[in-house]
Amino acid sequence: MNTKRLAVISYHTCPISDEADAEIGGMNIYVLELSKALAKKGYFLDIFTRSQDTNSPRIVQVNDAVRVIHVPAGPLEPLSKKNIEQYIPEFLAYFYAFVKKENISYRIVSCHYFLSGIIGMDIKKKLKIPLVITFHTLGLMKNLVARSDEERESKERIEIELQLVKESDLVVATGERDAQYIRYLYDGKPEKIAVVTPGVNLELFKPADKIQAKKEIGASLDEKVILFVGRIEPLKGVDVLLYSLKILLGSHPNLKVCVWIVGGDISLAVDEWPKELKKLSEIRHLLRIHTSVKFVGRKEQQELPVYYHAADLMVMPSHYESFGITAVEAMACGVPVITTDVTGVSKLIDKRHSELIISANNPIRLAESIAALLCNTDEYNKVSRSVAQNVQDISWDTTADHFIDLCKSCTGDKNDSRL
């Protein structure tokens, strides 16, 4: 029996899902890429996720050492995060039956998001193994920037997060800011909190010819492409980007520019788009900038490089962002990134380029920062040359090494050969 085996819980979202309406985001990338990096170091990982598709095989072998187990728990269809907590007992029953049937022993249970943490607390208690929790987003911080009651997280979620911070053996934050929030807002013990910065696939994301990329995606060669990549939800601040575009076009009428929004399901007619996506489309028409905004929908990881290569600039205007993996991917491709100071990735931007970091919810400041780059060729070229270098040491291999060291610490033995 292999003792270097870890159980990974990603209850509400499958890291290998390709469904248009599935929960896709940085967490999926983090779970899958970290697992593959750990596998290269001799570890075996079983990723357990709630089955959401009748066509998904029960077990998917990602490689020789990583497999994804689709657990039947509730309807075989995507459900909102608010509607799936009730199926956790079914999920746990299947998990324990699976462990017994395969005669598996796990050294650690690593959970992603608070719903997975509920499962992890039960597993820790029954199997008597350490629990590692990575929240990815925090309920208290989401509530701080929520613009409506609909966006607010429940009191129950926050109470669960508080319990997880207390009961977990290790709390992993993806950025320094979230580590501080966990310590001070959730009363986390400093010795149990660690930052594990996400990596980037440097073989996939690297500089390439911009003109060729623009031709490939159908972008105009005489327009500057401003790119947004991510999930379409209010806290991402995409509406702020559209406001800033209106300001930019008015203050620099000779600047030819177009915002490309990568994310969201645009497969249906605009009237049937998801709520936030439809709202953004309405904003572009209200501001009379609809010809300068292009929605291209969600793209798979392998499709993203060409969009980064075609971009002259990427913007991450988030109101709250635990890290921001897409920003690192863009930087690895040599694309300057303007981000708000609330994102974890802002810590990676060279202090010499402070103009790339702005305050959240500030469209005038964002427009000024965009213009400062796109209208100044010398400054733009200088920043472009340096951004890729800033992330060259941020690989998933390094992330995996750090994660292994932390897991050894939380078992109480840094020399534990079983990890």
Overall geometry comes to: globular
CATH superfamily of the largest domain: Glycogen Phosphorylase B
Please name the CATH architecture of the largest domain: 3-Layer(aba) Sandwich
Q: Which range best describes the helical content: under 10%, 10-25%, 25-40%, 40-55%, 55-70% or over 70%?
A: 25-40%
Q: What value does the Rg take, in angstroms?
A: 22 Å
Strand order of the largest sheet: 3-4-2-1-5-6-7-8
Helical run tally: 14
Percent of residues in beta strands? Answer: 15-25%
Helix/strand order:
EHEEEHEHEHHEHEHEHEHEHEHEEHHH
**Averaged pLDDT, please?**
91
User: What structural class do you assign from the helix and strand content?
Assistant: alpha/beta
Total strand count, please?
A: 14
**How many angstroms separate the termini?**
14 Å
The major pleated sheet works out as: 8 strands, mixed
The low-confidence runs, each spanning 5 or more residues with pLDDT under 50, are: 19-24
The top-level CATH class of the largest domain is Alpha Beta
Overall number of structural domains: 2
CATH fold description of the largest domain: Rossmann fold
